[in-house]
Amino acid sequence: MDRQYKIIKSSYADIVANQIKRMIINGSFSTGDRLPTEQELSEMFGVGRTTIREAITALCAIGLIERQKHATFVKNIANMCLEPIQNFILLKNIDLAQIFEARLALEPSLCGWAASRRTDKDLENIITFQQELAEIEQTATAESAQTADRFVEANFNFHFAIAKASQNIILADLLLSIVQILKDRQKEIMDVPNINQTIIQEHGSIVSAIQRQDPVQASEKMRIHLEKALQNHLALLEHPSITLNSAHTYTPC
After folding, report:
1. b vs e for 82-111, b when ≥16 Cβ sit within 10 Å of the residue's Cβ?
2. Looking at the structure, do residues 117 and 62 belong to the same domain, yes or no?
3. Is residue 249 part of a domain?
């Protein structure tokens, strides 16, 4: 039997919404930019203001833009893409081990690509965050929650700088959504004094491999770093009284 398929015609509002969406994606409108007024958009696309309102309403519904008083602004596209993944992780109550397994599937490859593809600016950013970590550790005060927060933030920036240096924006943003959840958990469990040199040393070996543009070593050093971090995280969760000393090192990763 022959099947008949109906062709769904796009309305003018759909066409306009798609055009504005493309302009946002290609950078014609950036995050935080104010969109032209309804009248200006009407003249730009050659349609009525009612059509523009319908297009704007549709784009607001998917979280691409937002209305503020009498103006419309472009929202953060990265956040819009990452929120569903973060919500999935939170709603499913995914445990720490699974989050680290996801990182182990992503980060060694990203780190290897970073070694092969990084620019001088990428390397500069990575080294800057590594130096920031070292400075925080050197000036750390005992039982300082502020120091712990700063260390976690700088550590997060270090890992994401490597991911961005891979030049794979899809996987880098996927990692961002995963690590953001982990960063929140790290701040909850990182109530420990005297952060030691372990993480600094492991990061140093990763940076050296990226600097030498050695993808095999960069990937391997990152894998080892993450595996150790997972073991340390789980040990700290099982024994909350553990503090950082010569017997127990803690790598927040």
Report:
1. beebbeebeeeeeebeebbebbbebbbbbb
2. no
3. no
Residues 59, 94 within the same domain: no
* Structural domain total, the chain: 2
Residue 48: give its domain's CATH number. Answer: 1.10.10.10
Using alpha carbons, select from 155, 146, 110, 108 the residue that is nearest to residue 253. Answer: 155
Per-residue model confidence as pLDDT tens digits over 186-219: 655 554 444 457 888 999 999 999 999 999 999 9
Indicate if 64 and 155 belong to the same structural domain.
no
Write out the residue range of the structural domain in which residue 117 sits: 80-238
How far apart (Å, rounded) are the C-alpha atoms in residues 25 and 17?
A: 12
Do residue 118 and residue 63 come from a single domain?
Answer: no
Instruction: Write down the pTM of the prediction.
Output: 0.65
Q: What percent of the chain has pLDDT over 70?
A: 73
